[in-house]
Structure formats: structure tokens, C-alpha cells
């Protein structure tokens, strides 16, 4: 290519320009440094690649696109790589409801656990492999039926509502319960854990409790079975609805199909609830932990019963012993009271006899002392007066005083001695206020 040189003159300076006079330097330039400048960047690398391989722009872009496709396929092959079923590649795109969307995109090992990013990358990989243009370039027929299946699968799985409806009826994600023979071989809890992990994806309440193992506590096991017997499922069956006609002319037919779909959903919901309950019953029947807990509960109840019976028996024995002791004490008290009463009666009798004896002594003392008359016989009036005064004094004193007075009179024979004792006693009673002055003058 020939190069062209064009000379351009500098512009003419203005007429009033006076830079030489008005110019003022504000700094100095640094010393020049010599540096090596190398061309870099994607555009230079693309230019170098084209020069090296002698490619045109279009050839280089096409080769780069092919390498990018291969790189994408290699990057995704490690995570999203499943063999394609030849029968699946021949599916009719119109029967999209019957297809397994996860199998179409190669995500069967993820299914409901597949993330949005995995779905997008799987879609990109499938599109790069099955795009009609690529098949046409390779000389294959332009049958885009499976490509439409890919597009429909991606459309359903990237829509949260439609994906939830499909996951609700995705039987390929279900885990069959182990048979009795399989459970007897061992790993009972591990086998059933996979079943409940699969069923737990339909629970409105998350997280779902785990089945546990042989070491799980009674509270954990009871919580697990209570959760599943009261399972609250979001599972619905709209995906299997019969298509409702969109035309406005046949409204009766449309309402009929809607009612039919609603009834079918309710029936399937009821059947699914019964299926799940039967599944829980089967797991519960083979759970050895339940048998162990029941045996422990029975042993605990028997222990409590025996302890209660022993406690009641002990209480009864203690009550009987207490009653016998109380009866013994009451009997002893009664006997003591009888003895005390008898002794008291005897003492009273003794005291009474002693009092009678002492009274006889007192009366005999005045009789032996000639009724306190010095010389001669006392008159009847003297005798009556002395005896009345003696009775009056004896009525004012108690038994002890009576005995004391009798002791004082013992051995006294003369009227003067006897009268002195009686006079002293009367004086004492007068002083204590029991007798008035002159009330017993016949013996003083």
C-alpha cells in the first residue's frame, strides 16, 4: 500500500499577539528519559494472531467462536454431563408435558435441587450441541423438534411457579421405600432417611426433622413421627390438568374442564396424603426404637406401680403400727387414770378418815378437859356452847390445819392447856379473817 504525505501550514498568529512580552515561566521541563514502548491489549493480540496464522478477520472470528464453544462444553462437562437417550432425541415437541425436563437438560442427578445457574448453563450446552443451524452446517436434517424440547424445558424450569408445579408431579425424584428384606439386611435408618428426605421437599415447614439413628432420644423420635403424621404439604397437581380451551365461544365447556381439573386435584391430593401416611406407618412398624421405648415405658410404669404399692403397703403398716401405739397409749392412759382415780379415792378416803379421827380428837380434847370448865360439872349450856364453837372452828380449817391442831392438842388434859390451844387457834382464824372477834368465845 502506497503512503501519502500531506503538508499543512501552521496557522497565522493574531495581530495583537505579544507572547514575548507577556510570557512568564512557571516551571521547568524535566530531563527527557528514553523508554521502550511495546504494543499490548486484546486488539494487538488479535492482530498478532491473524498475522501469525495468515487469517482474515472473518476466518479468525469463526475459528475463535468454535474454540469458545468447545471451551464452554469442556467447562460444563465436569458438572453437567449425562449421556443422551436416543429415544429422547426423537421426542415430539408438542408432547412437552410428558417429557422429563431435567432429563432433557441433563440434570437428572440434581432435579429439584438444581440451581438457576446450573439450569442456564445446561441450556447453553444443549443449545450449542443441538442448535438447528449447527446441524444444518454439519449436513444433518433441519429437524428442530428436540431443540424445541430444550427451549420448553428451560422455559418451565426457569419459571418458579411452573417449575414448582412440575416438581410436584416429578415421580423420578421419588425414592422407593425399602422392602422388608432390604431393611433386615441392615442400614434401616439410612434407607428410610433417603425416603423422607425425598418426601420432605413438599413440606411447607422447613427444616424437616431427620429420622435419626439408634442413639436418637425419645423426644426426637416422637417429634419426627408427629411431624410426619401432621405433614403440611404444598404439593399440587396443576401440572397434570387437562388443557382448558381458550376460545370464548364455548364457556360451558371451559367451566366443565375447570371443575373436572379441580376434582382431579382433590382426589390426587387425598390419595397422596393416604400414601404418605401409609409410608409413615410402615416405617413406624419396623422402627426398633419404638419397641425399645415401649419396653422402657412399660418397665418404668411397672417400677412406679411396684413403688406405689410398696409405698401404700408401708403407709398402711405405719398407720396400723401408729394405731396400735395409739391404742396402747390410750389404754395405758386409761389404766393410769383408773389407778390415779383409785389412789385419789383411796387418798380421799384416808384423808376423810384422818379428818374424822382428828375431829374426834378435837371433840375429845374438850370433853376430856371437862368442856373447859375448871372444877365442877359443866352445865348443858356450857357443853353445847363449847361443842358448837368446836364445830365452828373445825368448819373454818382444812384437813392439814385440822391435823396440826389435833397434834397440838395431843397430850393436853387440863382445861387451861386445852383452852390455850383453842384460844390460839381462834386468834389465828380471827387474824386471817375467817372468824369474827367474839364469835367463838366459849373456847377462848
Detailed description of the structure:
The structure is a single chain. The chain has 444 residues and is mainly alpha-helical. It is built from 17 helices and no strands. The chain has helices at 19-22, 42-53, 57-77, 86-89, 101-105, 116-130, 132-137, 145-157, 160-168, 180-184, 188-199, 218-229, 251-285, 288-368, 380-396, 399-409, 415-431. Helix 3 (57-77) packs across helix 6 (116-130).
Order of helices and strands: HHHHHHHHHHHHHHHHH
Low confidence ranges: none
Indicate the percent of residues in helices.
55-70%
| Coarse morphology | elongated
What are the SSEs and their pairings?
Blueprint: H1 19-22, H2 42-53, H3 57-77, H4 86-89, H5 101-105, H6 116-130, H7 132-137, H8 145-157, H9 160-168, H10 180-184, H11 188-199, H12 218-229, H13 251-285, H14 288-368, H15 380-396, H16 399-409, H17 415-431
Helix pairs in contact: 3-6, 6-8, 14-15, 14-16
Summarize the structure.
The chain has 444 residues and is mainly α.
Primary descriptors:
444 residues, mainly alpha, 17 helices, elongated
Amino acid at each position: 500500500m502506497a503512503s501519502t504525505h500531506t503538508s499543512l501550514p501552521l496557522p497565522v498568529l493574531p495581530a495583537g499577539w505579544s507572547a514575548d512580552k507577556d510570557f512568564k515561566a512557571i516551571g521547568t521541563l524535566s530531563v527527557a528519559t528514553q523508554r521502550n514502548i511495546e504494543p499490548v491489549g486484546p486488539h494487538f493480540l488479535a492482530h498478532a494472531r491473524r498475522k501469525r496464522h495468515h487469517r482474515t478477520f472473518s476466518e479468525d472470528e469463526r475459528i475463535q467462536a468454535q474454540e469458545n464453544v468447545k471451551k464452554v462444553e469442556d467447562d460444563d462437562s465436569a458438572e453437567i454431563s449425562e449421556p443422551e437417550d436416543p429415544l429422547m432425541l426423537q421426542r415430539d415437541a408438542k408432547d412437552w408435558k410428558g417429557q422429563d425436563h431435567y432429563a432433557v437438560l441433563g440434570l437428572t442427578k440434581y432435579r429439584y435441587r438444581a440451581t438457576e445457574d446450573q439450569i442456564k448453563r445446561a441450556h447453553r450446552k444443549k443449545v450449542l450441541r443441538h442448535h438447528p443451524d449447527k446441524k444444518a452446517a454439519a449436513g444433518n436434517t433441519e429437524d428442530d423438534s428436540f431443540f424445541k424440547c430444550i427451549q420448553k424445558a428451560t422455559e418451565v424450569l426457569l419459571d418458579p411457579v411452573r417449575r414448582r408445579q412440575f416438581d410436584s408431579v416429578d415421580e423420578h425424584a421419588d425414592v422407593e421405600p425399602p422392602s422388608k428384606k432390604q431393611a433386615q439386611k441392615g442400614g434401616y435408618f439410612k434407607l428410610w432417611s433417603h425416603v423422607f428426605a425425598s418426601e420432605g421437599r413438599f413440606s411447607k415447614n422447613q427444616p424437616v426433622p431427620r429420622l435419626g439413628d439408634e442413639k436418637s432420644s425419645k423426644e426426637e423420635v416422637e417429634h419426627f413421627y408427629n411431624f410426619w403424621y401432621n405433614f403440611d404439604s404444598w404439593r399440587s397437581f396443576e401440572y397434570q390438568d387437562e388443557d382448558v380451551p381458550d376460545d370464548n365461544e364455548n364457556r360451558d365447556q371451559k367451566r366443565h374442564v375447570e371443575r373436572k381439573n379441580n376434582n382431579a386435584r382433590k382426589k390426587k391430593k387425598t390419595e397422596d396424603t393416604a400414601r404418605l401416611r401409609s409410608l409413615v406407618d410402615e416405617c413406624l412398624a419396623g422402627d426398633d426404637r419404638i419397641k425399645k421405648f415401649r419396653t422402657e415405658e412399660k418397665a418404668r410404669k411397672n417400677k412406679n406401680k411396684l413403688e406405689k404399692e410398696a409405698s401404700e403397703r408401708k403407709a398402711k403398716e405405719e398407720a396400723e403400727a401408729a394405731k396400735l401405739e395409739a391404742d396402747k397409749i390410750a389404754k395405758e392412759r386409761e389404766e393410769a387414770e383408773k389407778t390415779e382415780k383409785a389412789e385419789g379415792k383411796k387418798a380421799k378416803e384416808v384423808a376423810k378418815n384422818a379428818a374424822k379421827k382428828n375431829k374426834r380428837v378435837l371433840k375429845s380434847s374438850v370433853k376430856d378437859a371437862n368442856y373447859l370448865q375448871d372444877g365442877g360439872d359443866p352445865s348443858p349450856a356450857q357443853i353445847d356452847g363449847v361443842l358448837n364453837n368446836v364445830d365452828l372452828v373445825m368448819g373454818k380449817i382444812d384437813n392439814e390445819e385440822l391435823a396440826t391442831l389435833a397434834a397440838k392438842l395431843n397430850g393436853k388434859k387440863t382445861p387451861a392447856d386445852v383452852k390455850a390451844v383453842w384460844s390460839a387457834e381462834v386468834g389465828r382464824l380471827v387474824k386471817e379473817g375467817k372468824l369474827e372477834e367474839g364469835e367463838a368465845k366459849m373456847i377462848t
